[in-house]
Design brief:
The structure is a homotrimer. Chain A is mainly α. Helix content of chain A is 79%, strand content 0%. Chain A has one domain: Membrane associated eicosanoid/glutathione metabolism-like domain (Four Helix Bundle (Hemerythrin (Met), subunit A)), CATH 1.20.120.550. The longest helix of chain A is centred in the C-terminal third of the chain and has 31 residues. The interface between A and C is medium-sized, with 27 and 25 residues.
């Protein structure tokens, strides 16, 4: 099966959205550095600055895992569930970031939700890759059957 | 439209170049740790060490965003503008790194240029994905017309 | 040459494995934060905590470079050497992480091995991309000849 742009277009759309979100987080750190007078290369500052900085670092740290799992799920399973979960992950990360900026405790509920979306993306991509190997061995794809039930 | 290696070869070439640059930055931190006697897991040290460390962290932080936006622009728009902007980004990052190592202020001009290249890559990939959806809806691709003017 | 799922299936399998490893590292930091009472956004703590934290940060920092070089090697050269090296990289990273948690010196042997695997992946992807351009210019692919000798 050849890869075409049409089979990854929604995953690409969520990826483009993720660029804007990452850029938004990066800007918040630049503003916080100015506001709390924390010049690079210093990373230590008032807790208000450190929360913005940690929120950005955490979002950036998980970004490769997010992109790779969404694309693997989109390519090896199906782009619709992959892009829906990816979109929900981005929403949760937005709430996580702005919750963390207010208070360290407020970061937790959206962080748990984002982690759940990431786990689902990893699970879907694992299912897709395992099914890819299995379907060749047994001549039957469970994933295709399930997708068919959902009309995908 | 099926993806072929020929339509992403220049983006791949810039990606390979980016590996060398990331490896170069990583080495600079290893040398700086030895030179300024900062043993892992410690991150704090003299400002000279912290500038090298922060420069490397910043380059690595933005690396996934750079790769994803260059590839999305290369696949959904065209590899020539994507790889040219990607190459200029790598040059700017090189100047940023070695400027930052000398003095914190010297990091800014190349950082602004790198940020501009990254914004352009994100804009091109957004244009490519939006045009991909629009061209199916209205049967006319503005991006293809523009590329045609440039002989691509 | 069109890209198909079959030509990247082993690289995809190692990628899925890498998700599990990254998730495992992330969990270790969460456990260490609880164990050593280091609440976010604080990053400083007892050396035992800082070693876990630095080990995770180092693995996450190199993750994009690992994924990009394994995929570039898999797509532009061949998935079998790319996925074998990628698998060995993941094994080395596991030993690095748990060595570092015990003592800073124990991180070095597996780190050197992981770095060697990463350098090989970068070299293979460079060879693949260079051969891709060269084979069009001179009508002969050295990489294909070498792969043929190995029965790939």
């Amino acid at each position: 099966m050849a890869l075409t742009l049409d089979t990854v277009e929604w995953v690409a759309a969520v990826t483009v959205l993720s660029f804007l979100e990452q850029a938004h987080f990066a800007w918040q750190v630049i503003y916080a550095r100015r506001r709390y007078h924390v010049s690079p290369p210093r990373m230590a500052g008032p807790p208000e600055f450190e929360r913005v900085s940690r929120a950005q670092i955490n979002c950036f740290e998980y970004y490769p895992l997010f992109l790779a799992s969404m694309w693997a799920a989109g390519v090896f399973l199906h782009q619709v569930p992959a892009s829906v979960l990816g979109f929900l992950y981005l929403v949760a990360r937005y709430k996580y970031f702005h919750g963390y900026v207010e208070a360290a405790e407020k970061r937790l509920p959206p962080l748990y939700f984002a982690a759940a979306m990431l786990r689902l993306l990893c699970a879907l991509s694992t299912a897709g890759v395992v099914d890819h190997f299995l379907s060749r061995a047994i001549g039957y794809s469970l994933v295709q059957s399930v997708l068919h039930v959902f009309g995908l």
